[in-house]
Specification:
The complex is a heterodimer of chains A (73) and B (386). With 73 residues, chain A is an alpha+beta fold. Chain A has a single domain, classed as SH3 type barrels (Roll), CATH 2.30.30.140. In chain A, a hairpin with a 2-residue loop joins strand 4 and strand 5. The longest helix of chain A is centred in the C-terminal third of the chain and has 14 residues. The termini of chain A are far apart. The mean pLDDT of chain A is 94. The longest helix of chain B has 25 residues. Chain B has a 5-stranded parallel beta sheet with strand order 2-1-7-8-9, with helices on both faces. A 4-stranded parallel beta sheet of chain B has the order 4-3-5-6, sandwiched between helices. Chain B has a single domain, classed as 3-Layer(aba) Sandwich (Rossmann fold). The model of chain B has no long low-confidence stretch (mean pLDDT 93). Classes of the chains: A alpha+beta (73), B alpha/beta (386). Chains A and B meet through strand 1, strand 4, strand 5 and helix 1 of A and helix 1, helix 7, helix 8, helix 11 and helix 13 of B.
Amino acid sequence: MCLAIPALVHELLPDGMAKVGLDGVLKEISTALVPNVAVGDYVVVHVGYALTRIDAAEAERTLALLAEAGAHA
Amino acid sequence: MKHVDEYRNGALARSIAATIAREADPARLYRFMEFCGGHTHAISRYGLEDLLPENVRLIHGPGCPVCVLPVGRIDEAIGLARHPKVTLCTYADLMRVPASGGSSLIRAKAEGCDVRMVYSTLDALRIAEAEPDREVVFLAIGFETTTPPTALAIRAAEARGLANFSVFSNHVLTPSAIRAILEAPKTGRLPPVALEGFIGPAHVSVVIGWKPYEVFATEFGQRIVVSGFEPLDVMQSVLMLVRQVNEGRTEVENQYVRAVVPEGNRAAIELVDEIFELRDAFEWRGLGSIPHSALKLREKYARFDAERRFTIPPSAAKDNPACECGLILTGAKLPADCRLFGTVCSPETPMGSCMVSSEGACAAHWTYGRFRDRARRAATTRGGAA
C-alpha cells in the first residue's frame, strides 16, 4: 500500500502538476507536496503524488556503504 | 530503472549476508520486526530470509493497512455503496477484502452498486466533477504515506466548490501501532512478542520523518532502523540492527537517507494536521481498539466527511473465528501456523485480509514462500538423519 516508485521529472505542468517518466511510461502526477520540483529531479511517486525528491548525493553514499558492507566476504 | 535496479543486486545481497553471518553472534537471537507490508513483500519476493543465518529472524508486523482494517469497516463501506446515489471510489487493494456474509466490494459491484477502482484521489475528484449528479465517496485507507493525498483531494474539492465529494476516512497511524506492540506485556491486550529491534517504515517516514520513533528508543529501549523497500536496503538495515545489538546501542537510525529526513515532509504534515484530527480510538484487525491511532476529518471539513453526510449502518461483524490474521499481524504466529492457510484460504478465495493484499504476510508467503518452507523442512530432516 505504501508502495512508491522513483520517477524522473520530464516536464512541469500548470496547477502543480508534472509529467514524470518511469522506464518509458509517462504519467501526470501532482507535485503539490514537494516545493520547487525541477525537470531532471527524481521524485518518489505514491498514488499520483510526489512525496519527496530523491537526494542524489545521499543515494551515492548509500551505494558506497552497501559496497563496503559486502566488501570483505 | 534508476534508484531501483542498483538496490536489487543479488551478488551484493549475498556478500552483505556473509558480513551479517560473520558479525552475528551465534549465541544470540536477533529478532527484528519489519513493520511494513512493503518490507514483508520484499523479504518474501527476494527470499531474504534464506540469506540470513538461522539466529537472525524477521517477524512480520501489522503495517499493511488493508490487513488491519476490520471486517466491520468493509461492511460499512458496502453499506455506503448501497445508497442509490453513491459512487464509491477506492484503491484496488480493498476491492476483494472479505466482508461479512461472504461479501466484498467487488461482489457489491457485481450486484449493481457503483463501486469504482481508482489509482489516485485525483481520479476520484475527476469523477466528482464529471458526474455532478453522483455522490462521490472516496473510501480512504492507508498509513501516513497515503493520508496527504487524501488531504489534498479535500482541499481541492473545497477550492473547486465540489459539493458532491466526500471521504470515508480509515487513515491510521504507525507510531500508535508500534506503541501497542511494545506495550503488549504491560497491557496484556496483545500477545507479547520478544524483539531486538524494528525495521522501520520507508515511505511513512518520508512523510513523518524519523523523529517520532525516538520515544521508542528512550522509553522502551528499542532499536529502529528506517529502511528503504528494496532488497539491499533491507539487508543493510538488518546489518545495522545486528551491529546495534552487538554494541549494546538502542537508537533510531536511518538507512533510507536518500528519501527520509529527520523532520519528514513539513508541507505534508501541516496539510494533514489542518484537515484531520485524532480519533479517540480506532478498531484494528488483530490489534483490537488502539487509542489515538486513526484520523477523522475536523469539524471545519464536516461537509466532506462521509461519516457525517450519510447514515452508515454500524456493523459489529466479527472475523472468521478460525482465521489467525490477528496473531499473524502481531508477529505471534506465522502464516503456515493457520489452519486455513493454503486450504480454504488462498489469494483466489481469501478468508482473511492478510491473504488479500500482496503485502499481507499470508499472501506474500503463499506467493513466494510456501515451497521454501517445505525445502527447509526437508533439509533439516536430512541434516538430522545424517
